[in-house]
């Protein structure tokens, strides 16, 4: 029994070139459909992670994030007393500014710093005046930092496998092999909740709590209860410090240190840019 097909269906065999042209046209048409046009200005932010730590197909695996310019509506968020008291005001702000469709909890903390700087630039401009202290003389210097000129730290990219947020590390003392991950916003939120609960019991366990979310397996065993027991009872201080040191060498992030001119000697010294209250509240009296 014959079956009627669409009139556009080819009745004659197509050449390789014709097939390629059809496929290209469909791809370009689909790409055009997916481009969204917003009624507000946006900017593309380059992420320090380059997108390498996000799974294949994740919106951030491209290494880029689209953000909108801050408006009066977002300033309302910054002055929301309830958000400020809860300590969530900046997260609320960043969520409002991020245009790329993502689950905010997936955002890596190392990329969140780049989002913070971009939000400041898109809200109040690139120039940020800070006071830094000379490491030798103790003399204070006022300097205006161009936030768009901040660069990324040099790290060891060798252990990074595209699409994976997993890093194997052998503990120097115990020789146990642990699998580590860099923290996301979602993981940090869980850490904050847990540490606040422990604080009510008069227990300060920020370090061990963080490690419980950083270590995802021990000698190939991913049992969460065993990992927590190991950290609480068996993890040596020398191994704990080694983990933190190693993570610093592989964590992509913005370098917040700048060269500051020394007026008297004519030389320069390097100093860390301290993010103050006026970073997002320029009119704050500090």
Characteristics of this structure?
286 residues, alpha+beta, 2 domains, 3-stranded antiparallel beta sheet, two-stranded antiparallel ribbon, 37% helix, globular, disordered N terminus
- Strands across the major sheet, in which order? 5-6-7
SSE order in H/E notation? HEEHHHHEEEEHHEHHEE
**Structural class, please?**
alpha+beta
Oligomer: single chain
Q: Percent of residues in helical segments?
A: 25-40%
Based on CA atoms alone, the radius of gyration comes out at 25 Å
- Percent of residues in beta strands: 15-25%
The dominant shape is: globular
Please outline the major beta sheet: 3 strands, antiparallel
SS elements, strand count: 9
Mean pLDDT: 86
How many DSSP H or I helices? 9
Q: Uncertain regions: pLDDT < 50 for 5+ in a row? A: 1-11, 26-35
The overall number of domains is 2
Written description of the protein model:
- With 286 residues, the chain is of the alpha+beta class.
- The chain has helices spanning 16-34, 72-78, 81-86, 89-97, 109-124, 185-200, 206-214, 224-233, 237-250, and strands at residues 42-46, 64-68, 127-133, 140-146, 167-170, 177-180, 215-218, 257-261, 268-272.
- It folds into two domains: 42-151 and 255-279, no CATH class; 167-250, no CATH class.
- The strands form four sheets. A three-stranded antiparallel β-sheet has the order 5-6-7.
- Helix 2 packs antiparallel against helix 4 (89-97) and helix 6 packs antiparallel against helix 7 (206-214).
- The longest helix is centred in the first third of the chain and has 19 residues, at 16-34.
């Amino acid at each position: 029994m014959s079956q009627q097909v669409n009139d556009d269906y080819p009745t004659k065999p197509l050449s390789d070139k014709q097939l390629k042209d059809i496929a290209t046209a469909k791809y370009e048409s689909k790409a055009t459909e997916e481009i969204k046009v917003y009624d507000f200005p946006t900017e593309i932010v380059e992420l320090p992670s380059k997108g390498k730590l996000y799974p294949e197909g994740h919106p951030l695996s491209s290494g880029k994030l689209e953000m909108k310019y801050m408006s009066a509506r977002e300033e309302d968020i910054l002055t929301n007393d309830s958000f400020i008291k809860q300590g969530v005001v900046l997260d609320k702000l960043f969520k409002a500014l991020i245009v790329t469709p993502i689950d905010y909890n997936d955002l890596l903390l190392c990329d969140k710093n780049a989002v913070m700087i971009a939000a400041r630039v898109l809200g109040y401009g690139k120039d940020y005046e800070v006071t830094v202290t000379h490491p030798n003389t103790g003399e204070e210097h006022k300097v205006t930092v161009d936030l768009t000129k901040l660069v990324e730290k040099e790290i060891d990219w060798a252990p990074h496998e595209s699409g994976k947020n997993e890093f194997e590390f052998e503990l120097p003392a115990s020789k146990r092999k642990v699998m580590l991950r860099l923290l996301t916003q979602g993981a940090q939120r869980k850490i904050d909740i847990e540490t606040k609960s422990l604080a009510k019991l008069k227990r300060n366990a920020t370090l061990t709590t963080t490690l419980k979310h950083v270590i995802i397996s021990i000698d190939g065993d991913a049992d969460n209860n065993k990992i927590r027991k190991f950290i609480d009872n068996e993890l040596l201080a020398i191994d704990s410090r080694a983990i933190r040191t190693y993570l610093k060498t592989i964590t992509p992030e913005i370098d917040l240190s700048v060269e500051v001119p020394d007026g008297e000697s004519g030389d320069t010294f390097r100093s860390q840019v301290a993010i103050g209250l006026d970073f997002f509240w320029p009119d704050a009296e500090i």
